[in-house]
Amino acid sequence: MTDLRNRMIQDLQLHGYAERTQQSYISAVNLLAKFFNRSPDLLDDEDIRKFFLHLINVRHASRSTVRQYLSGIKFFYETTLGRPLPVLDLVKPRKRFKLPVVLSVTEVRTILALVRNPMVQMALVLIYACGLRLSEGRQVRTEDIDGERLLLWVRDGKGGKDRAVPLPRATLERLRFY
Question: 1 falls in which pLDDT band (50, 70, 90)?
Fold first, then answer.
């Protein structure tokens, strides 16, 4: 592992970034270095410009991918190297307006009925009914369920935040039966 990479990892840790965010940012800088086949600290504004044009026009990278690379590369140059690059302020991935795919109640029931493991099935029901992220659903404990007020407490969710979400009565009853 290079000194530069170690330095970036340390900077990410000092800034309190989540492990997955750290991996994504490191990966973005790694891809940049591989694209030019040289150390990223040797690249200039024009190189970065070419890289993002390649991402957008040749690879047709999604908006979220471009934003992820932008954030990682910007962190590297501005924080780790202390070298702001004006071209990074130009990169603005185009917004796409797509409606999300929403399953019907029948489709959701069909999918859940196919899950044979009762614990996994209950976890999926809870995740779906409360609108949780998978990582949040994995962390739910019995003490997080407030049956009296029909709330589920999500501990250490995205961004390390706690929040309460509505817990449907039918899901609460199913949890109690489980």
Answer: low
